[in-house]
Amino acid sequence: MLRILVLISVVGIAISSPKEKVLQKRSYDPSMRGFWPMNADHTIMDQIYYTYGFEYGVTVDNTQHGNICSGYRFYGNNGSYIYFHSDGQITIQYSFTLLVYAYPTGVAGPIIYGSGSADLWQTAANQALLRIRSQRDMSAYYPNLTTNGLVQNEWNFIGATYDYNSGEEKLYLNGAVVNSTNIGSIEFARVGNIVVGAVTDDARYYKGLVTCMQLYDRALSPDEIIEAEKLCTKCPAVVRGDPHLTTFDGRAYSFQGTCWYTLVKDCLNTNPEFEIRANFAPRDDVDVLKTRTVAINVTVGEESIIVDTHNTVSGNSNDLKFWERHIDVSFNDNTVMISFTVKDTTFTLRWKGRKHIFTADVSGTAYHGKVCGLLGNADGDSHNDFMMSDGKVSKDVNEFGESWKVADMRCE
Ligand SMILES: *[C@@H]1O[C@H](CO)[C@@H](O)[C@H](O)[C@H]1NC(C)=O
Ligand SMILES: *[C@@H]1O[C@H](CO)[C@@H](O)[C@H](O)[C@H]1NC(C)=O
Ligand SMILES: *[C@@H]1O[C@H](CO)[C@@H](O)[C@H](O)[C@H]1NC(C)=O
Ligand SMILES: *[C@@H]1O[C@H](CO)[C@@H](O)[C@H](O)[C@H]1NC(C)=O
Ligand SMILES: [Ca+2]
């Protein structure tokens, strides 16, 4: 007994050391029952319980539409769907919130079919429909709620909430309540399988894209739904070529810096938890001054890695204890994938050394508008992206760019 107590206290000291400030695992709202990003980075793995869906006749589509660059494509036939099995974890009994981004290219079909509680459908080119059912009483039908604000060939952020205490059922579109009714207090079945795209007892099949599906076991407020939308991954920030940069908020510009610059860093803390730097070097194959990215330095807490043009990764990870390590590195073809998580925010970085292309995805709410550097502040507004290191917003791209040069670095 004594020995166990001693062991626990040692671990306790270790994990409460200041280096443990950065959390490895994301923390989500405790009422979240499932979060399926449904994009190239996260496939169809639930980020809460780490279970996978079963996919049939669908593809990952990485074409940019608006500010979303990745989703799952459904082909509008009976063989094109994803089945998410519940072992009880995605079961809803009382209140719920269901959220999803849908980009319909067809005219009708089930977007989310929750076997025990609620369905979201496209029922006409511009119509979305919410149907609530209680599988405890199959004969009981509650009025469907519709909206004619759905836009075909665009991303629509669709939501449904039901509050057991008030009996209120609401249909949301792009963050606003578009229809609601009171159906009294009902209980749902204790089965929670979800199907996206096609169901057996209906001849309508969803055609189009889907991404960022979220399920909560309570009715979120309108403000919380706007926050929840920020969990959806937007198009990555990009550094490529001469360098041409595109910020997290989609502002594109060119900037010829040389040596090390801050691309992204934590601006929430005066002592940043993380920083991503790029080394720009002059090209020797052109006469005019053109630079390109030759290395990326990713630092999280005490851990620091550098990736070069040969995709070789070096750094201090191996010298650190496991709890001091935060950076995941994997290789896929000619790409180095780097990811790390701080608070509720995950950064997914891709580096193609030979092509000098770097991209960065951010997903989470804690750093919304709270990062800074050449890739902007990630608050959804491209106008304020030229914020300099002193906090002022510049109109001049060179003044902005130079403000993010790392002082006292030597480059050849
Ligand atoms: C699915 O569609 C194919 C082709 O239209 C058809 O042959 C098949 O019977 C259908 N299967 C089901 C289960 O409806
Ligand atoms: C409610 O919506 C479902 C799914 O689209 C449909 O099958 C059903 O007929 C609708 N019910 C009514 C009463 O319109
Ligand atoms: C709300 O849904 C009902 C039922 O489908 C529909 O008749 C009504 O027109 C909808 N209201 C709005 C504002 O779209
Ligand atoms: C990488 O960046 C961190 C700060 O983010 C810095 O402390 C470290 O010295 C850099 N490493 C190299 C080799 O430049
Ligand atoms: Ca911005």
Automatic annotation (TrEMBL):
VWFD domain residues are 235-412
Any idea which UniProt keywords this protein has?
Signal
Per the UniProt entry, the signal peptide is 1-16
Q: Does the keyword Protein transport apply?
A: no
Record keyword Lyase present? no
Gene3D superfamilies, per the entry: 2.60.120.200
Q: Which PROSITE patterns match?
A: VWFD
Query: What is the protein name for this chain?
Result: IgGFc-binding protein-like
What organism, scientifically named, is this protein from? Saccoglossus kowalevskii
Name of the coding gene:
LOC100378060
